[in-house]
Design goal:
4-stranded mixed beta sheet; alpha/beta; 5-stranded mixed beta sheet; globular; 26 strands; 29% helix
Length: 428
């Protein structure tokens, strides 16, 4: 599906983001592992979360929905049923990696697969600690399809060479099904949604610096979970309103977890006019909420350190677009992880910006963007990557003329109504 958009307008009004994708995956999975009923309000509507939903159904978990509420009847400790067919995670790396952790501790044989894009993404970094815990995980060249023979696990003290919320969550979920304690230490703090959500289900992790520990063998109890607005989705709106003259945008009840809003810190250094208004109290889920009020501002170049990247990995494409309109040379360091997303996002970002007339290049694992530039309309291919498609649509709103984004349907992965919501809020 192609989508077209014209420049020369502004963003006005109040908008609400879809439910947070990362939190939604975890709420479904922990609900499936718990004893009793779990209710989830505001579950993300995208295809990635639906992939987790369908996999859990195949594992015997009853899931129903009514309006904005989803209800699960958990199967309890090691209670998942052996599926009759391979579990298809489709395009969702989160689905595959987190389920690897859960399936490692269940006494069943399972195969996990996905689409062509997902089968190119590395899974060895997840399998390695799980095999150390006693699971038997096999794959070809470190990629899916993944075969998992789960069973009795032992706790480990694992030191990860990379900061990865998905690897961390997989190990912690397996640790809940293991004997003794399981610890995960990372070089910098990655997204901590799993650790924040566990106390709702009756499990309180121990935290010491960048080390988090869970105790296995404890039963999880069903919980009520509120899913805030997706911070990564909000980033596209924030950048657009910062750059479109005459904009005045209010984003309501977006998740304000410090490990998810690094993009706001970067934009603040660039001079963006974003006012954050915390909303209280924190609802079920342990996640802080905030309203964001955004108006246009003149931006200046920024340097993003490699240590910041785990906290804004999904927002690099839209931040790079902001850098193309900022005064000076911006550099985003240490982006090697972007090569292993739905596409090679590092090369893709530079190519996308160049197509719109911007000055962007890759130097090793760094992205260098020189601005400000005057964007011109283009016809671009999303590459099947939802973050790239949304970045291209925002670029089209900033450019002169009409832009067409090919294969724009991939935004359904995280934000099915992005095009409709965004074009509706654009006003002359």
């Amino acid at each position: 599906m192609n989508r077209s958009i014209s420049g020369g307008r502004r963003l006005l009004g109040k908008v609400r983001m879809p439910g947070d994708k990362s939190i939604s995956h975890r709420a479904l999975i922990l609900g499936a592992m718990a004893e009793g009923t779990t209710g989830i309000e505001g579950l993300a509507p995208g295809q990635d979360v639906r992939s987790t939903w369908r996999c859990l159904l195949a594992l015997g978990v009853p899931i129903t929905s009514r309006g904005n509420r989803v209800t699960l009847k958990g199967l309890g400790w090691r209670g998942l049923k052996e599926p009759r067919v391979a579990l298809d995670a489709e395009n969702s790396g989160t689905t595959m990696r987190l389920l690897m952790g859960v399936l490692a501790g269940n006494p069943i044989l399972t195969e996990l697969t996905g689409d062509d894009s997902l089968r190119r993404r590395p899974m060895e970094r997840v399998a390695q600690p799980l095999n150390l815990m006693g699971a038997t995980i096999t794959m070809k060249n470190g990629r899916a399809p993944v075969t998992i023979r789960g069973g009795a696990l032992k706790g480990i003290d694992y030191v990860s060479p990379v900061a990865s919320a998905q690897v961390k969550s997989a190990v912690l979920l397996a640790g809940l099904l293991a004997l003794d304690k399981t610890s995960f230490t990372e070089p910098v703090l990655s997204r901590d949604h799993t650790e924040r959500m566990l106390p709702l289900f009756g499990i309180v992790p121990e935290r010491e610096g960048f080390k988090v520990t869970v105790t296995g063998g404890l039963y999880l109890a069903g919980a009520q979970v509120f899913v805030p607005g997706d911070a990564s989705s909000a980033a596209f709106w924030v950048v657009a309103a910062s750059l479109l003259q005459g904009s005045d945008l209010h984003i309501v009840e977006v998740g304000a977890n410090p490990t998810r809003i690094g993009f706001l810190d970067v934009l603040a250094r660039m001079g963006a006019a974003v006012r954050r208004r915390d909303t209280a109290p924190v609802k079920e889920g342990g996640e802080p909420l905030a309203d964001l009020l955004v108006r246009p501002a003149a931006l200046t170049a920024v340097e993003v350190a490699a240590a910041e990247v785990p906290g804004l990995i999904d927002e690099v494409p839209i931040l790079a677009l902001a850098a193309s309109r900022a005064q000076g040379v911006s550099r985003f360091r240490g982006l090697s992880e972007l090569r292993h997303k739905e596409s090679d996002r590092l090369a893709g970002i530079a190519a996308l910006l160049t197509a719109f007339g911007a000055d962007a290049r890759v130097e090793g694992d760094d992205l260098v963007v020189t601005g400000p530039c005057r964007l011109k309309a283009a016809r671009v291919d999303s590459g099947g990557d939802h973050r790239m498609a949304m970045t291209a649509l925002v670029a089209g709103a900033l450019a002169e003329g009409e832009t067409t984004v090919e294969r724009a349907e991939c935004v359904d992965i995280s934000y099915p109504m992005f095009y409709e919501d965004f074009t509706r809020a654009l006003q002359a």
